[in-house]
Amino acid sequence: MRMMRRYAVTGHGEVAARPGSGTYRRRLMSNPTANFFDALDRRGHEPLPEDAVGSIRFDLEHDHEVDHWLLVIRRGDVHVWREESGADRVVRGSRAAFDRMVTGRSHIYAAWVRNDFRAEGDGRLPRFLQRVMPGPPGAHHPREFARRESRPA
Questions:
Q1: Are 23 and 29 contacting, i.e. CB atoms less than 8 angstroms apart?
Q2: Cβ–Cβ under 8 Å, residues 57 and 68
Q3: Phi and psi angles of residue 51, each rounded to the nearest 5 degrees, phi first
Q4: What angle do the packed helices 32-43 and 95-102 form, to 10 degrees?
Q5: N- or C-end of the chain: fewer Cβ atoms within 10 A?
Q6: Sequence-ordered alpha helix ranges (H) in 5-141
Q7: CA 23 → CA 16, 19, 33, 99, 142, distances in Å?
Q8: pTM of this prediction?
Q9: Do residues 14 and 52 lie in contact, with contact meaning Cβ atoms separated by under 8 Å?
Q10: Contact in structure between 93 and 56 (CB atoms under 8 Å)
């Protein structure tokens, strides 16, 4: 596998300030998809099954442009690049639909059923994606909810 170089790209396609700088963070604030991929890349490791190995490229259309996000998964280690290169699975759709998913306003499987996304390649990889997607706004982890509700008043 060849080495890939990470770099930040704004929602308009130009190269942004380096990740971690104030300018970079302000530009990401208005783009939920960029925020999601940036946070996923910073976490670096996700509790995924050992057979979670491969790459998924997301081609997300908006304003007559296409953003490319390459997600590489190696036994729980997750890295993200802005690159249009080969991948085991390619997912195409609108950035608006993806924004709804990463903000928890839409569920990944409901988006597939509505045909918000088209995919080709290895069909095993998207099931791992559900594990890293956020829940609905205001959702709580079931254990936290049960602990809070079982406390005496």
A1: no
A2: yes
A3: -85, 5
A4: 50
A5: C
A6: 22-29, 32-43, 95-102, 108-113, 126-132
A7: 8, 9, 17, 21, 37
A8: 0.69
A9: no
A10: no
Q: pLDDT tens digits, residue range 97-144?
A: 999 988 888 888 888 888 898 888 887 776 777 777 776 776 666 777
Cα dist from 20 to 14, 72, 98, 136, 137, whole Å: 17, 21, 24, 27, 26
User: What's the rounded Cα separation, in Å, for the pair 11 and 122?
Assistant: 28
Q: Which two tokens stand for residue 151?
A: 């406390």
Q: How far apart are CA 51 and CA 48, in angstroms?
A: 8
